[in-house]
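Predict structure. Chain length: 108.
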Amino acid sequence: MARVTGTAKFFEVTRENLDELKQTKSGRVFGCFIREDDGWCRYSEQYTKTYKAWQEAPGRTVRVESAQAIFGIDDDGARVVAHAYFENEGDLLEIHHMWLIDRAAIVE
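Prediction complete.
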């Protein structure tokens, strides 16, 4: 139904990638994922912890902030997806409120 109504984004991934993503239980709500240059998506514990720390910061007064302010990366290289599915041949993994960060935007 979400596909028909356009209320979620769908990301086609390989079977191996989907299996890897399913191993991560903690990223299914408010998780951060890195989209590699080859399209592979990986859960990022580092960015998820950074996002959680930002959410829980005692002095935080804004509810929505940019990728630059939260992660220190270019805003064009990351986006919030409110409702998403990673999918492969009808098999789905549902994610709520995630950040999708392009590998190219990360300066290490």
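Summary: Residues 45-56 form the longest helix (12 residues).
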